[in-house]
Specification:
With 901 residues, this protein is an alpha+beta fold. The protein folds into five domains: 143 residues, Calcium-transporting ATPase, cytoplasmic transduction domain A (Distorted Sandwich); 60 residues; 257 residues, Calcium-transporting ATPase, transmembrane domain, CATH 1.20.1110.10; 158 residues, HAD superfamily/HAD-like (Rossmann fold); 194 residues, 3-Layer(aba) Sandwich (Calcium-transporting ATPase, cytoplasmic domain N). Helix content is 48%, strand content 17%. The protein has 34 helices and 27 strands. Strands 10, 11, 12, 15, 16, 17, 18, 19, 20 and 21 form a ten-stranded mixed β-sheet that branches. Strands 8-27-26-25-9-22-24-23 form an eight-stranded mixed β-sheet, with helices on both faces. Strands 1, 2, 3, 4, 5, 6 and 7 form a seven-stranded antiparallel β-sheet that branches. Strand 10 and strand 11 form a beta hairpin. It is elongated, with a radius of gyration of 36 Å. The C terminus is likely disordered.
């Protein structure tokens, strides 16, 4: 018996396949089945090991930023500042819980894949038909399938009776595959293996018999499951950036605290005082609020995206979208409308185009609608009638929607006829149906026989090269003429080059023609015309592609469809201005890795691509340092969806497998929604960057104050508890409010951020240093001023603390935009920030008069004179940052990079 390792079964004849598996048309015996079950195992897909919940929890904690927060909890407990310890603890627990829930839900992709396998199968064994569990199938079994069945294993077909199978979940092909049993001589992609049926696909019509050539993990579905299991999720850019940021913060905090402690001891300061000083420095530098800001900013964007038809399953995915440099989009339903529409008709040697508005002649230079010759018997009229009558689909209208049933191609023909007021039911009254000849992959045509004018009339549609061979005449403008086969085929080729699927229409009304079609050799027909149809592009997807290009994002099409259609759609939606170069799956298969890397720099359209090849494209782009978003809806897309930084599954047409493997679900199946999500992703990163800048510049101002006071032998201007209060009163609310900032238009026109760039750009690090020095100088200035005027140490400390609090309340408005002036930002565009700023001031003011906080923080009310001094000083942070923005405002158009850098 042949091994189950993948072989080109479609290239072997039925007899060769039966011989390879030592089986026969009557089926296997019970003994043979038992032996093979022991040897091959059950026909099931391996799900891999389940991840322990404890392992998922530990994975959430294993983050440098969480380590810093845990250290902060220990420090605050040591100095007995219980409130801050509790707050930081809540932040750690909240982030751990959210991360656990998201990751635990993400482990369901294989489970969903297994559920798609057929639970039952009809099998022939010892010449008897049995209904068994599909898990009991073995290689060499003879399986029977019919309309409505899910194919239970990979089959090489032995018999096909008008069999059609929907293979879209594996191939991406929107039209059901017409099956045959003929041997295929050459190597072809999955979508063109017409003599095969694959596990998990659905039989839409007809029936067939096949021999099992692969079970379980050896099937195409099993191969995809293996790819999913072996594929690791890409780390999001935000996770990578935050990891690096936390490491640097940790190093800086430890270095500064250690240095301050050592310097203080060298200057003769008490050990306990210096320990508390080092602790206050460390706490001042730790951006405790940053994890909360991140979580809230991501959650806010998730809500915004949900309103724009994008549902996020993992919070970090929001920011990843804003970082993406390339989007690999499928075609059907995402860039296109997912419905076949007749667009061009050629009849009577004249060309016509069909639009949503109706019918008009297609003449060079003509754009206005003229009267189309709809006289009964005209070539155009007869071409439409043939498409409506040689048809098994249904098209019904109700008050709210159009209800369709049948093959998408035949539905398109009904719609084109309806635009000329040709209704199938009405036509059947005029031409009563006598018989129908369904489409067959061998004969490549379908037909219907009708009664009309006391004789039988045949209307036929099929492949142009097949139809012309059964016609001896064609309808011309002035009546029948001898058929010009060369002209018809040339016109058909012209339409096909535009990405159209072309069908030829013909009719006959002679007894000889009726007899010939019933014996399977139709002759004596009159050619009527050609109808060319396609799945048209979405208008909003076209606009979104243009927006992606303006934002510096490459859009690449990866589809299972044929190369001509892929190239046409790619050009229509703007992926390529000119007819694009298309790389097929077979060409990709033979291409070495180094050549593929070069090719990816110029090719943007890939057709007839298999699941493993799509995964290879994603892996290659990741190796190049690209941040990749991938769209998909089928089982075949799942490995690539999981491997990409962002997997975007379709909500309407997408399988559960695709959704479970993805970070995002597009509820309207529209590429435009993906670009909307990119906008939100850029906004969320921008807000996290603004909040980080605010926290770091404010926190380091406290460090500078303490270090300078140590260097010049001044009493400490701030006590450890006051530093902690500063973080709570100034940063605790206003930094969170920055997460609600609306996006700025210019950020949508910039190239993608450098994936290696940090949370803070060089520009913002520079600005943070300037702000920290200004705020520290102001606080020390007030402290020394009050001391010089005879105030006691406690009062001077309150003045310094309040100055830093006030600095922060003004500085948060600087942080609303990296480039724009604070005075150009509408204060009410972020109402939460406006309210948070007032609340922070009220909280600090209240603490100065509330007895418990007076005692805890050793603070007291300030006089009017002190307020009149500190407020102007705190205001100075606004003009300082405005000047920095003015002189450090890079030109995006000139430098072509992220201006924040």
């Amino acid at each position: 018996m042949a091994e189950q390792a993948e072989r080109a079964w479609y290239r072997l004849s039925s007899k060769e396949v039966l011989a390879a598996y030592e089986t026969r048309a009557e089926g296997l015996s019970s003994d043979e089945v038992e032996i093979r079950q022991e040897r091959c195992g059950p026909n099931t897909i391996k799900s891999g090991k389940e991840t322990s919940p404890w392992k998922i929890i530990l994975h959430q904690i294993a983050s440098p930023l969480v380590y810093v927060l845990l250290a902060a909890i220990v420090v605050t407990i040591v100095i007995q500042y219980w409130t801050d310890a509790i707050v930081i603890g809540i932040v750690v627990v909240l982030n751990t819980v959210i991360g656990f829930v998201q990751e635990y839900r993400a482990e369901n992709a294989i489970k969903a894949l297994i559920q798609m396998s057929a639970p039952k199968a009809t099998v022939r064994r010892e010449n008897r038909e049995e209904n068994i569990y599909s898990s009991s199938l073995v290689p060499g079994d003879i399986v029977l399938i019919e309309t409505g069945d899910i194919v239970p294993a990979d089959l090489r077909l032995l018999d096909s009776m008008r069999l059609q199978i929907d293979e879209s979940l594996l191939t991406g092909e929107s039209i059901p595959s017409q099956k045959s049993i003929e041997t295929i001589e050459e190597d072809v992609p999955l979508a063109d293996r017409d003599n095969m049926a694959f596990m998990g696909t659905a039989v839409t019509s007809g029936s067939g018999i096949g021999v099992v050539v692969a079970t379980g993990q050896y099937t195409q579905m099993g191969s995809i499951a293996g790819d999913i299991l072996s594929t690791s999720r890409a780390e999001s850019p935000l996770q990578h950036r935050m990891g690096r940021f936390a490491k640097w913060i940790s190093i800086i905090i430890l270095s500064v605290a250690t240095a301050a402690f050592g310097v203080g001891l060298a200057l003769g300061e008490p050990i306990l005082d210096m320990f508390l000083t080092a602790v206050s420095l460390a706490v001042a530098a730790i951006p405790e609020g940053l994890p909360a800001v991140m979580t809230i900013a991501l959650a806010v964007s998730v809500q915004r995206m949900a309103r724009r038809n994008a549902v996020l399953r993992r919070l970090p995915a929001v920011e990843t979208l804003g970082s993406c440099t390339a989007i690999l989009s499928d075609k059907t339903g995402t860039l296109t409308q997912n419905k076949m529409v007749v667009q061009k008709i050629w009849a009577g040697k004249a060309r016509f185009r069909i639009t949503d508005g109706g019918l008009s002649p297609e003449t060079e230079g003509q754009t206005t609608s003229d009267t189309v010759d709809m006289e009964k018997g005209s070539p155009f009229h007869q071409t439409l009638i043939a498409g409506v009558l040689a048809n098994e689909a249904t098209l019904e209208y109700d008050d709210t929607e159009v209800v369709t049933k049948g093959d998408p191609t035949e539905i398109a023909l009904l719609v084109s006829g309806s635009k000329a007021d040709l209704d199938r039911d009405g036509l059947l009254k005029e031409y009563p149906l006598v018989d129908q000849i369904p489409f067959d992959s061998k004969q490549r045509y379908s037909a219907s026989i009708h009664e009309g004018n006391n004789k039988k009339i045949i209307f036929l549609k099929g492949a142009p090269e097949r139809v012309v061979n059964m016609c001896d005449s064609m309808v011309g403008p002035d009546g029948p003429v001898n058929i010009d086969v060369e002209k018809v085929l040339k016109e058909s080729e012209r339409m096909a080059e535009q990405g159209l699927r072309v069908l030829a229409m013909a009719k006959a009304d002679s007894e000889g023609a009726v007899e010939s079609i019933r014996r399977g050799d139709p002759k004596g027909f009159t050619f009527l015309g050609l109808q060319g149809m396609m799945d048209p592009p979405r208008e909003d997807a076209t606009r979104a592609v243009a927006s992606c290009h303006r934002a510096g994002i490459r859009v690449m099409m990866v589809t299972g469809d044929n190369p001509i259609t892929a190239a046409s759609i790619a050009q229509k939606v703007g992926i390529s201005k000119e007819k694009p170069e298309v790389l097929t799956g077979s060409e990709l298969e033979k291409m070495p890795d180094h050549k593929l890397e070069e090719t990816l720099n110029r090719v943007t359209v890939f057709a007839r691509v298999s699941p493993s090849q799509k995964l290879r494209l994603v892996d290659t782009l990741r190796k190049q340092g690209q941040i990749i978003a991938v769209t998909g809806d089928g089982v075949n897309d799942a490995p690539a969806l999981k491997a990409a930084h962002i997997g975007a599954a379709m909500g309407k047409s997408g399988t559960d497998v695709a959704k479970e493997a993805s970070e995002m679900v597009i509820t309207d199946d529209n590429f435009a929604t993906i670009y909307a999500a990119v906008e939100e992703g850029r906004t969320v990163f921008s807000n996290i960057r603004k909040a980080t800048f605010f926290l770091i510049s404010s926190g380091f101002s406290s460090i500078v104050v303490i270090l300078i006071s140590l260097a010049v032998r001044l009493p400490l201007p701030l006590l450890p508890a006051q530093v902690l209060w500063l973080n709570v009163a100034t940063n605790g609310v206003t930094d969170v409010a920055l997460a609600f900032e609306p996006g700025e238009e210019e950020q949508y026109r910039r190239p993608p951020r450098d994936p290696t760039a940090g949370i803070l750009s060089r520009l913002l690090i520079e600005r943070s240093i300037i702000v920290a020095l200004v705020m520290a100088a102001g606080a020390l200035g007030i402290f020394m001023w009050e001391m010089g005027e005879g105030a006691n140490l406690e009062y001077a400390r309150v003045a310094a603390l309040t100055t830093l609090v006030t600095f922060g309340l003004f500085h948060v408005f600087n942080s609303r935009s990296v480039q724009r002036s604070a005075f150009r930002k509408n204060p009410m565009s972020n109402k939460f920030l406006f309210i948070a700023t007032i609340s922070s001031f009220v909280i600090h003011l209240g603490a100065m008069y509330f007895r418990p906080t007076q005692t805890l923080l050793r603070i007291q009310p300030l006089t009017i004179d002190t307020w009149l001094k500190l407020v102007p000083i705190a205001l100075s942070v606004l003009p300082v940052v405005e000047i920095h923005k003015f002189f450090r405002h890079p030109s995006y158009l000139a430098q072509q990079r992220d201006p924040d850098e």
